Amino acid sequence: MATANPSAPDRGGPSHIRDNIVLYGALAANVGIAIAKFAAAAIGGSSAMATEGVHSLVDSGNQVLLLYGQKRARRAPDAGHPFGYGRELYFWAFVVAILIFAGGAGISIYEGLAHIREPHPIEDPTLSYVVLGIAFLMEGTSWVLAVREFNAGRDGQGWWQTVRRSKDPPGFIVLFEDSAALVGLVVAALGIWASGYFGDPRLDGAASVLIGLVLAGVAVLLARESKGLLIGEAADPRLIEQLRAVMDGNACITAVNHVRTVHTGPDAVFVAISADFADDLPMGEAETLIEELETRMKALSPKITSIYIRPEKREQAFVG
Fold first, then answer.
1. In Å, how far are 35, 99, 145, 257 from 112, measured between CA atoms?
2. pTM score of the predicted model
3. N or C, where is the chain less crowded by C-beta within 10 Å?
């Protein structure tokens, strides 16, 4: 027997902006910062500044892709996709990770190596310092918003544990992007300063390579997390235990063979349960019991959208 809830309707307007304030804040900051960085790079000739411009431009595109992915993921289920389109957000999150690696890290490392092979001094670092300072304030503001949003969903867990258990990629992607951006700004400033202080413009190129390596590390981490979500991850272990407890607490159920869950979207969990019911339980009573169990399970979490409970003999069930 199964129950299902339709996906949430596509929302727009002010409500949509409030729900995605972190993404919109990061997008606004990155667009403005990218323009300023490219202008400073053109005037001052800093490789690290040009690299930072590419970094902000890639981040801007990433936020657009995540917003697009959220819009696509909210589409209602249909005959071709009966469980909805929630996982499409995970696809776009994986694309974002690839873009950070290729567009951000790849170009940054290439630009840095090119500057090391053919170094040229920075004509006027003043403008670069001003732009980096403003960029640090804007990125810092976006980072604070991302941290607040991230902390709101931690529920007492550590940062890394929260990332591993999170099913909503935009939250941790923006946090990692902003963190990498702040590190990149510091590295760029140090590279510009060092190239002038030591009279070696190759240090500016080395800073670009270092920024690229930071971005590559972030991209690999995000790709790993997004891949897991795209393949299909189980619900929170605490929710699984609660679901099992609902089944175990009923005298008409002699054994719970398995409780399997998978996220079909950030806020959608599919539940499949195999249980051995008492042999003397009439069919009509079994149907009523299953309906009662499903009602109790749906009350555990609003994320549960579909529940399938299958009566199955313990010795015939595959327990894995």
1. 20, 18, 31, 57
2. 0.78
3. C
